[in-house]
Design a protein that fits this description.
235 residues; Rossmann fold; two-stranded parallel sheet; two-stranded antiparallel ribbon
Length: 235
């Protein structure tokens, strides 16, 4: 993770408290602010996806407060962190899960109702992250959730696949698979870190002779991103 050093700016003018308050009124105001300043929409002109993204950013603001606080506490205590590497992480949709983990599902439902919006419609709008296609991904997600429940510092490392589990449709009595383009409408839960990108070598071949010319590797640029999920505050 890249870091910068410099003077610490005062927080006297910060809107942090307003952006992370958990009351229905604060959630409604944060939602309207994100809809206007992040999505560039008014309630009257917004699509269902605009409304979902605005609410997702509203919830993410409250997660990030706990996330950054937890990281600072871990650094101050110099704790060991479990690093779990998996090719798949089937975490499921984030919005409803994060509302439950933050304990603000009812408050959010009330806030949306005040604005004439059905929370269930926004929950259904979210695409499930397609980060795998089997039981391994479900197991990895449950494992990380258990670590958080037990207050064990941990971070999961995986691959953000552009195309996830295939979509299944039945046409004329036959199963038809289509590409799962789960990122096509954006992913508000990911924080991209392009400055930390690095090259990944692909291809190559096995060699028997020590001095045999090696085949040329293919290079791909990996762009890291942090995904907000289950957060437990460190004591």
């Amino acid at each position: 993770m890249s870091e910068t050093s410099g003077a610490i700016l005062p927080h006297s003018g910060s809107q942090k408290g307003q952006r992370t308050a958990l009351s229905a009124e604060a959630l409604a105001q944060s939602f309207l602010d994100n809809l206007f300043f992040v999505q560039g929409r008014s309630v009257e002109r917004a699509t269902v996806n605009d409304l979902y993204l605005a609410l997702a950013h509203t919830v993410r603001d409250r997660i990030l407060e706990r996330w950054i606080s937890t990281v600072k506490n871990y650094q101050a205590q110099d704790v060991r962190v479990v690093c779990y590497l998996s090719a798949e992480f089937l975490t499921g949709p984030h919005l409803a899960n994060n509302l439950i983990n933050l304990g603000i599902y009812d408050e959010t439902e009330q806030a949306m109702r005040q604005l004439g919006i059905d929370l269930n419609v926004l929950v259904e709008q979210e695409e499930e992250p397609g980060l795998g296609n089997g039981g391994l991904g479900r197991l990895a997600a449950c494992f990380m959730d258990s670590l958080a429940t037990l207050d064990i510092p941990a971070i999961g490392y995986g691959i953000r696949y552009e195309y996830g589990i295939f979509d299944q449709q039945i046409r004329d009595g036959w199963q038809v698979e289509s590409t799962d383009k789960w990122l096509r409408l954006g992913n508000p839960w990911a924080l991209e870190r392009p400055e930390d990108g690095f090259e990944v070598k692909l291809g190559g071949r096995a060699q028997k002779k020590q001095h045999q010319p090696r085949g040329k590797d293919e290079l791909a640029m990996a762009g890291p991103c942090d995904a907000s999920g289950r957060i437990q505050e460190a004591g």
